[in-house]
Design goal:
By secondary structure, the protein is α+β, with helices and mostly antiparallel strands. It has 10 helices and 4 strands; from the N terminus they run αααββααααββααα. The N terminus and C terminus are likely disordered.
Length: 483
């Protein structure tokens, strides 16, 4: 549960505030984390999950140390992450600026002056007088935050800081997922490139067989042309796969903050996936996903700004003071016998500002309403992402099983077609068609295995990272404790 400290006013002051503002005095009680969205007790899309992700993070579950190292390295170089870190530093500075309003301001001014003046004596003689003057003044100003207006502004800035921290965490999680996606695109492209090379070799062997039969007069020139066509098409596909791999390599290099030279390496085969691991329950997402945390604390910041706007309608209380000394001789400057000081208090009540203050209240309230709707939309989108990823876990696994069977059938058909063509029992078209079907089936199998890996990354991202098993003895209340 997200906790945000809120200022408390003395009861007498609160009573006076209520008298002045009536029912419009803001309530800063914590909002419901669900924002009115009905959260089920379990995910409706259920996938098999028994694996333990361990404590090394979601990337380690793929058992690829190179991927883990690339993510760690890229976090130091990625421009988007540096941008998010800079925004966090801005929020830290803004929070310190806001907190400074709660403290008195004190400034000092030292003014040395040399003055020359002319005078006329009674005898008519004109003279010149030169005079030195040294003055030191100190000024103090402090607003007594009777109604908590300044405290509300400070709380809003603190909430903005919390949101920036959550934004950075979300950017880091998204960055890791994007690196994994680009990385596995390279791996899939490598497998497809090797498959294209194998197919080229297969079609080349078929062409050699056809040419040998043609030289013996067993077949005709048409078979030679058809076999040659299939070989050239396979070569073109091989070049296309190489181009796709290079594009994936450059995409990953840019993510890592490197020049896109298309030289980065990756694993040669896609990982074998087990089950998805524990996913927790839907309500866990409210505290796990950094984008949800960011939306929630921005909602809290909007509430605080509503409170600040309303309290601007109340009187403000200031204490001001000044002290100083003035002398014509610098050596007497620290003599405090002539010290002059003043202290005063004043109360300022807004009376007429053209409706600016009241309209500001309406503006802040409308912004808070927008934050509520945005937060609810963020929740629903997060739930949708998890449900889709969980459902796809099962759908993609079933498709992979069917495609494996299709590959086995296509491979057996190719072998049979080669045997029959060698014996003159079938036409070259049947052999070439069998080879193309096998190529298509194997390509689809690699694509679906790649899709499963990509969906697993999407699931981890949707869950806000891997869900670790609860420690022994942890209560549900402890599980939902404040972040």
């Amino acid at each position: 549960m997200i906790q945000i400290k809120r200022s408390r006013n003395v009861s007498a002051i609160a009573a006076l505030s209520t008298l002045l503002l009536g029912a419009c005095t803001p309530s800063l009680t914590q909002r419901d984390l669900s924002a009115g969205v009905i959260v089920p007790e379990a995910w409706t899309a259920i996938a098999e999950r028994t694996d333990d992700f361990g404590l090394d993070g979601w990337a380690a579950s793929f058992e690829d140390t190179e991927l883990v190292d690339l993510i760690a390295m890229g976090r130091e170089r990625n421009p988007d992450l540096r941008t998010a870190a800079a925004r966090l530093n801005q929020s830290k500075a803004s929070a310190r600026v806001a907190f400074a309003d709660r403290l008195p301001t004190l400034d000092a001014q030292f003014t040395p002056t040399r003055l020359q003046s002319r005078f006329t004596a009674p005898n008519g003689q004109v003279g010149v007088v030169r005079q030195n003057n040294f003055s030191l003044a100190g000024n103090l100003a402090w607003e007594i935050d009777v109604w908590g207006r300044v405290a509300s502004n400070v709380a809003a800035a603190d909430a903005d800081l919390m949101a920036s921290k959550a934004d950075l965490a979300a950017a880091q999680l998204s960055f890791g997922a994007n690196v994994a996606r680009a990385y596995f695109e390279i791996v899939a492209a490598s497998e497809l490139s090797r498959l294209a090379a194998d197919s080229t070799n297969s079609f080349a062997r078929s062409l050699n067989i056809v040419k040998a039969r043609y030289r013996k007069g067993i077949t005709n020139a048409l078979d030679v042309r058809l076999a040659a066509n299939s070989l050239e098409s396979a070569k073109a596909l091989q070049v296309q796969r190489a181009s796709q791999k290079a594009e994936s390599q450059r995409r990953l290099e840019v993510l890592l903050g490197q020049y896109p030279a298309g030289l980065i390496s990756a694993a040669q085969t896609l990982p074998t996936l087990g089950t998805a691991g524990p996913t927790g329950i839907p309500s866990d997402l409210l505290s796990r996903r950094p984008d949800i945390r960011a939306a929630y604390v921005r909602l809290a910041a909007a509430d605080y700004r509503v409170a600040e706007a309303k309290r601007n309608l109340l009187p403000s209380f200031q204490i001001t003071g000044s002290a100083g000394n003035q002398t014509e001789i610098f050596s007497d400057f620290l003599e405090f016998d002539s010290l002059v000081w003043r202290i005063s208090a004043n109360v300022t009540q807004p009376i007429f500002q053209g409706g600016r203050l009241k309209e500001t209240v309406k503006l802040r309230q409308a912004q808070a309403d927008e934050a509520v709707a945005s937060y609810a939309g963020t929740l629903l989108t997060a739930f949708q992402e998890v449900e889709n990823a969980l459902a796809n876990e099962d759908f993609l696994r079933e498709r992979e099983a069917f495609l494996k069977q299709a590959v086995d059938e296509a491979a057996a058909a190719t072998v049979l077609a080669q045997q029959q063509y060698s014996r003159g029992l079938t036409q070259i078209l049947n052999l070439l068609d069998s080879q193309r079907r096998e190529l298509d089936s194997r390509s689809q199998l690699i694509d679906i295995r790649s899709a499963r890996v990509q969906n697993r990354v999407t699931l981890y991202l949707a869950l806000g990272g891997p869900v670790l098993p609860e420690p022994t003895g942890q209560t549900p209340q402890e599980k939902g404790a404040a972040l």
